[in-house]
Hints:
A: alpha+beta, Aldehyde Oxidoreductase, domain 3, 3 domains, five-stranded mixed beta sheet, B: Uridine Diphospho-n-acetylenolpyruvylglucosamine Reductase, domain 2, Enolase-like, domain 1, 13 helices, globular
Amino acid sequence: MTGTTTDRAVGTPLPRLDGHAKVTGTAPYAYEQRPDDAHPLHAHPVLATVARGRVRAVRTDDAAAAEGVVAVLTHRNAGPLPDLDGARDGELAVLQSDAVAFRGQCVAVVVAGTPETARHAASLVRVEYDEEPHDTELRADSPSLYAPEQVNPTFATDTDEGDVDAALAAAAVTVDRTYRTPMEHNAPMEPHTAVAVWEPRTDGADAEGTDAEGAKGTEGVRLTLYASTQGAHTVRTTLAPLFGLRPEQVRVVAPHVGGGFGSKGMPHAHDVLAVLCARAVPGRAVKLALTRQQTFPLAGHRTPTIQRLRLGADADGRLTAIAHEVVEHTSTVKEFAEQTAVGTRLMYAAPHRRTRHRLAALDVPVPSWMRAPGEAPGLFALEAAMDELAAAVGLDPVELRLRNDPPVDPESGKPWSGRHLAECLREGARRFGRPGGGAAPGSRVEDGEWVGTGVAASTYPYYAFPGSEALVRYDGGGRWTVRIGAADLGTGSRTALTQIAADALRQPVDAVTVELGDTELPSATVAGGSSGTASWGSAVVAAADAFRAEHGHDPAPGTRASAGTPEDPDAERYARHSFGAQFAEVRVDVDTGEVRVPRMLGVFSVGRVVNPRTARSQFVGGMTMGLSMALHEEGVLDHRTGHTVNHDLTGYHVAAHADVCDVEAVWLDEVDPHVNAMGARGIGEIGIVGAAAAVVNAVHDATGIRVRELPVTPDKLLG
Amino acid sequence: MIPFDYVRPADPADAVAAVGGRPGAAFLAGGTNLVDHLKLGVTGPDLLVDVSGLPLDRIEETPTGALRIGATVRNSDLAAHPLVRHRYPALSRALLAGASGQLRNMATTGGNLFQRTRCPYFQDTSTPCNKRVPGSGCSALGGHTRDAAILGASAHCVATHPSDMAVALLALDASVVLLGPDGERTLPLAALHRLPGDTPHRDTVVEHGELVTAVELPDRASARHSTYRKVRDRRSYAFALVSVAAALDVADGTVRDVRIALGGVAHKPWRAERAEAALRGTAPTEAGFARAADAELAAARPLEGNAFKVPLARRTLVAVLRDLAGAADGGTRHDGREGGR
């Protein structure tokens, strides 16, 4: 679909280079590392069963006496975390105090010879608590709401332009609705695992020395962590100072990752726990795999949101006012402020605009990144409200969006590097059929099912992070190696980088080997914000250019060159965002309210697509996750205990194969000239954005019932 | 892990003797529920008696025309059996509506009957549960009750029975053959499962050491006109919000025979006898179906989180009867709702 005549590999649907290894079980994931270690140890955490309080006592005798148990760590004996850089990350201060800040926080860990022994012994640890009153329930009128200093990652908390209240009062048509999304949890196929080896100094001295930073006994230590992570270097730069180590003392290895969606974007408590265990048994490999249940409190989650949307428009549907006010939660040990209303700032033009984010710090696990943090819940609410506005104005929902398509970024006034939302909407309507169809909602029944269609817009910002480096080496014999500490979460980034490198080196793809997922390789930024291909690919192209400039066209074997992510002068000149249009058809059983989604279509504008095969997988995967968000996903907190009662994949529903029918993703043939050498803006997250709104809008079209609280379960459609 | 002994007995009598001889022993068949519970700490038997290899894996017609299903017949095999598909379509559909393909390949006929509730509090050892620890309290009351019972619950337990297969078997008037230390006995399936009362830790009337060896299905005309409808939050691998198994025999514009069981609504598969009585001998009309559903659900006592189950059960029951009546009339509503949904 893309590709120019000068490209050879970029733009071609190269199959995943690691696909064979993965399907034959030979690609090592974190827990499978150290295969030559005949006697690794296994750790199993003990999690708090109260939502707030203090650990009064931990009785570990029975656990310690169990056969095969090597160590039982609690806050009393786990040892300090020097925290050299003073990050004071409350999520990572594992076993450092008796305080319990949420149910499911780690209060002890057992290290034993087998995973079964460790798990059994963990069940023998008796923890006594001084329980304190807790609050886990998010309420729009909570007295403890506060405005964070900024929202993830560095956006302004609030924005104001014009006089929203006056504009709403004067508007010919208004929508004032509140939408809610529940707690949602990432469910990567590979759960969160780590293997840690803490090798003490080998010069014969014991751990009594004190280095200049005040950390005891860490000089000469080597820590190796096989992690399931979206950024090996991120893990290293976070954990090394926590344990009083210099980054060079730490090696993080993650060649293959079985999905992350953001939940492996930064280290979590289990990574720290694995290293604490390893430090307690120096020289031994300690393996830790969270159970699926344990990932619910420990691997981050998407905050629930309460979103009030107010839209004002003239009689022709031209927006005069947009207000998007968000209430969401964070934990008491670490603030994470999801940027839910940020996408609204740029979606549509209106002279009067306001966004707000307010947080309640509750006694809940630490929220974190989940695919398209901010845009995924935020565009659900905005695009459902736009659908309500279209109905109020009496306008086709596609036409409403076209009328409000801003010529420049409404927030910054900058020109777009390429805003093609209108093309996406038109192309989608041409392929899918006009959503809404003209008939009144709830008026079409076929074979005992209400039938309806819906549309929603999507957007995701272009991120490219500075600081990645790539090394290119000519190996001789026509072989090239490219090294960069990037991550492949299963997205296909290894394959895409190989294509980019091959073209940059003007070599066939099978002449190039890309090595990634290791801090021994040149530094790379985290696989987050759909930034990987842009950030790492830019460094790879720069390194290839440097190689040619330094060594010409006939290099000697062993010749190498390095380069970092180049300057990005267009960052200040252009507003750079991807866009898309999502369409869904739903069929709702008239008797039972069960929803089917026989087809979805996404049309995306993302700059150049490096690999149509892996890109399609990202789009379709994102749309599927959006379908799942619309119909299935809901973490249920029991507010009496602060416990997520449906904390497994039986209770926490993600879409099953049977729920996912015809999901089609296409994209515009384009190159963004204002982003990077590839002209690509990133594809990992936009697929989820707007997908839930398209489904919910289609449900309204089908049934006449407007569901404003996700997920759309059958009980909400019984009328 | 908690150490336990493991034996593979040679015949059913040995299996019964092995479990009967040890209070902490348990039968292991497909393991699709018990193994989870071992990992979660929900139960901790000290002896597992593996009956999966016993010669109880046949499906055969008896001289009376009934179908005898061995206790270790796998769910997948049972669902696909030609006689089951032909004579007892509700059973085939119920089986295919359950769990996932992988689980159905492991799960057995006998084991399926003894599935324990999926009430989240039962499965989580950090919360009180009268079914798991008698006398400890019911965490579901006042908590998450979306999956809880609307019929026959008690102040001690609001759990639901999770099986699809058992609901269909109940509507098909199955009986269960049990082998115990004192020999064999046959129970109607309707008498197997219990309501919770004040002893919710007991799911069934089966005594320790008794082993299901077979399930028998009578040959009835109505069974051929039977179906199973499962309503759930996602289209596979989800337990029923509400399910309906029904068999309907209409002749000369009159309901000659009807059998109905509901799933997802009670501590046991729920035979809808009041609804059946309201329908028998009447004309099969939409209004009559609704009256029958109302008659059955008049006893419903929903909680805050599962009140929707009452109208959902009513509507699903009416829809199922409508479909069956339409099929009996020769008219069919195309709904694509074969098993697997």
